[in-house]
Amino acid sequence: MDKLKVTLTTLHAVLNDAEERQIVEPDIGSWINELKDAVFDAKDLVDEIDTEALRCKARDQTKKTQVCNFLSTSLNPFKYKGMNGRIEELFQRLEHLADQRNRLGLKQDIGRNVSQRTPTTSVVEKGFCPYGRDRDKEKLKDLLLLSDNESSSNFSVVPIVGMGGVGKTTLAQLLYNDEQVKKHFDTNAWVCVSEQYDDLRVIKTLIEQTTGKSCDISDRNSLEVRLREQLRGKRFLLVLDDLWNESYDDWDHLQNLFTYGAKGSKVIVTTRNKHVASIVHNTIPIHILEELSDENCWLLLAKHAFRNENPSAHPDLVEIGKQIARKCNGLPLAAKTLGGLLSCNLDCKEWSHILDSNLWDPLHPTSILPSLRLSYHYLPSYLKQCFAFCSIFPKNYEFEKENVIRLWAAEG
Ligand SMILES: Nc1ncnc2c1ncn2[C@@H]1O[C@H](COP(=O)(O)OP(=O)(O)O)[C@@H](O)[C@H]1O
Ligand SMILES: [Mg+2]
Description:
alpha/beta, binds adenosine-5'-diphosphate
């Protein structure tokens, strides 16, 4: 039992790492399925043993032998296969998978609970040329350059909402780095907020960026005073990238510091969450960032798949590639990831294999699975499991959130 529990703990840690990599490494995908089956079977077995042991204990405290009896007989309806046999068999499966774990180079990664995407910065690649965002950029740029003299507030929030990987950060970077925009503001700062909202870190980053110096203040009051003074009377542009926090109080507290700037100051907020956008928005309407067209998705995918080669040298690949691009459903992150995957092998068979891969749901040719899968892929591991729980409900079934929470709690 102890050995099984230890093996389970370590393998579970690998499961988290493997989940991150399976999308671009099909080998890991099938390995992970086998491992998941084995891990879940093992968990069931441990639960069965625990429950039975508890029951024996409760039934008769003195008859200690019962647990042993139980272990040597079986819970399994197939009589001849005892509990020991099942444990033995599970160990073999797990050990076999553990051997492969080394071959696949998977790492243990216990306790990681933050998103895998690296924090964003304001820096864009030199000569980066986005596909299909001209209109979004022009519209938002005009809003940024408004002087807002009639507005009652001296700063406006520009909320950009869209699903993960649709290009919010990229659009914010394009705006932030635009020459005209840069000239328009007295000072500017970029902070990647992400899931774990830490207002002191946000304030500190804003101070460091606007002063260009590192800041070692840790006292809340001094930090707030410092930022307020830093922004006082200036026309500033701030970017809060990837905001998740839904607390109105937190936002209200932070935005108080922004009220000391000059009229026409702007704060770009990007978020996946419409509710967050409605909390932060003041005068400027929420900008919904739509998916790219299939054509633009293809251009982006082709750029990453062919790198320096000319696509027209591979007419067969172009045909398959366009079909793959369509399956990205307008998500640049998907197009880019798949382009990178495809570039490893400029070969028709490989490409068709990916087109027909079980990465896409074969039952639903128009499914949005890949893009959903990508946004799932970028969830922190602990949230992945919570999210996956929703799949136990039938389609269109109306469920109570308390029930799901109880199920999560039951799983620890
Ligand atoms: N219009 C675009 N053209 C080319 N690449 C893009 C475009 N939009 C996004 N990308 C790329 O797609 C990836 C995901 O975009 P990102 O801005 O990080 O999405 P989000 O912030 O919405 O999650 C990035 O690597 C980015 O370079
Ligand atoms: Mg982003």
